[in-house]
Amino acid sequence: MKKIFYLFFLPMIFLSCSSDNDEVNSNGINPPDWIQGTWLVEGSVTGDVGFRFTGSDVVLLQNLLDTSYGDLVNHSRELGQKVEIEQDVSSDHYSLHLIFSSGQTMKFEFRKISNDEITWVQSQNTVLVKQ
Predict the structure, then answer these.
(1) Bridge partners for 105 per DSSP
(2) Three-state SS at 45
(3) What's the pLDDT at 45?
């Protein structure tokens, strides 16, 4: 009976302990509250295309392929690459610029139209609708 107790009890201790990995997940991406959620291209005929914003990530949604830029930043840093993050935030504007030490850069810029619509500036001001 003691062995069964230890088999269930010990894993619970290890799972409940915090680790240094919590800091690794802090990638430096911080979208504002007003843009957080899922936004899809209005009237897309190719399936779900748009973005999902969380408190610490920007995810590009393309049908069945989701690209997490927070994960990309974390992975690059794990490989020893430097990643610079520039963000511009206001009550109606959010831009994210990722600059990788390899020379690759990515820039996303969004403008708020209303609580339910934003434009994706780089894509000819494509309208995205909040889901």
Answers:
(1) 99
(2) coil
(3) 67
